[in-house]
Amino acid sequence: MSFYPSEVIDDIRSGNDIVDVVGEFVKLKRSGSSYVGLCPFHNEKTPSFHVNQEGQFYHCFGCGAGGNVIGFIMEHENLSFGDAVKYLADRINYTLPEVSFTKDAQQKRELRQKLYDIHKIAARFYYDRLMSDEGRTAVEYLDKREVSIGARRKFGLGYSPIAKGALYNRLKEAGFDDDTIIKSGLVYKRSDNTFYDKFFNRLMFPIIDVYGNIIGFGGRILGDGQPKYLNSPETDIFNKSKNLYNLNLAKQARAGELILVEGYMDAIAIYQAGFKNVVASLGTAFNENHSKVMKAYADSVILLFDSDDAGVKAVMRAIPVLKGAGLKVKVLQVVDAKDPDEYIKKFGANAFGELLNKAKSHILFRAEQIQKQFDLNNIEDRIDFSKEIAKLMSEVDSTIEVDAYLKEVSRLTQIDVSAIRSEIDKLNNGVREIKNINRRTNTNKKGIDGAREDIINIVMANRRYYDIISQYLKPEELLEPFYIKILEIIYSLYSKDKAVDTQSVLDCIETPEEQRKFTAIFVKRIKFNEDEIIKAINDIVKNIKNSYYDKLISDDYTNPNISQLIENKRKANNLYISLSDG
After folding, report:
1. What's the whole-model pTM score?
2. What is the mean pLDDT of residues 295-301?
3. Nearest alpha-carbon partner for 279 in 297, 289, 288, 239
4. C or N terminus of the chain, fewer CB within 10 Å?
């Protein structure tokens, strides 16, 4: 929750009209009671991004983004709730009050700040060493790799000296205690109680988060030794699974697409060539957290890994993770060069740009990998290959895309399109019933979610409806945590005699994801007339209660109180609510 009282949040939100704030980032045009523009969160040619000045909220009918002015700044600038409040306070010259923390929270906050300070000092220390005689070997390496002076400054490159306690001594001079220095992950303590630096005789790459904080380092060995690359360990400020190298600069490109490469030098070379939307992994397997971070800044990703077996396996692992986050995935492999850096040096930035434009769909890339497993001169292998391709194509929803892919696969393999399409038809016939079952299940789920959304809108619409419904329906009966939270917020606001509207509810929601879900509920609201409302309330409450008791009964049918649960469900079915109940 926010450290600031609700009155302060209300002041900040009231002082920052959402049309004015959004208008600083999006070109808006008035349309009826709203303002519309191109959504900043996904690529589109026709405006579907609406800003409601009266309700002080935004909603995109294309990608579903939505929230209040604080939520917009959180999502657009990738800031925490507290940082977004500070951003908006600064915008209107509002002085925020001092905040109080619990002792534990204060200690954690102070530790994080000390770790940020340590990393800032370490980065300066490494940079100065690169510029000194000690860094001659590192400079020669950078010269050989044709990293410009400007790029060295831009990325804060440095050198960790051979003296294994040099950074430790610098941090002690700056006044940090041993315990905090060790927690930074940049220094270790030996069994004999002496201290030594994690990095020595390495070219240093500061890792910077999206807020501009240095949170860790990567180091490349200069000369012989292993490992070739070494990264900071995880600390209170550094999580390899939630950060990407150069994302702090790549997000500024606002390209809608990110190029994902394997290493620091590839990222620097590509950035230096003018393609600023490049990021690199941090020496850990690509995971769901990485894909969520990327989705915050892009709709599509080009995977640009080495063409060796390890690189191909990494791409194959990353594809489903990225797809799971809703990203479009393309794959690019450089030819006539061992990596992107060498390709750019040999052929130039323009040629690399043309290469990027030729990145292929992950479907075609996977088809090529499948092909390698078969001898297409052998009739049985050709049949088996067709079956595997059919499975792959069954993932594609668009018939137009399937046609395009089939033609390309046919061209590459000389297998007739009709043969592969026949296999696809067999697969589709085999799973049609499963799809029908899934569709029915999804419809039922949408039905109960729709009931939850309707009850939230009805309760918000009128204090009188709250007085009635709150007697019969508890927030916990909505089952899903998000819906429970929203109904609890609405009930709480009414109980404190506060205004209940979009603004007041959004003020209580601190994550962009939940703000997005709430505004989606609000914009889909159905208005009931007086004759319809009582029937709607009864139907919706019964639907929710039935789902609630069904869940309790199915979760634990051995419960000794099972008969009471069944009786409660029966009573819910016989329930009748009238407008006079309030």
Report:
1. 0.62
2. 84
3. 297
4. N
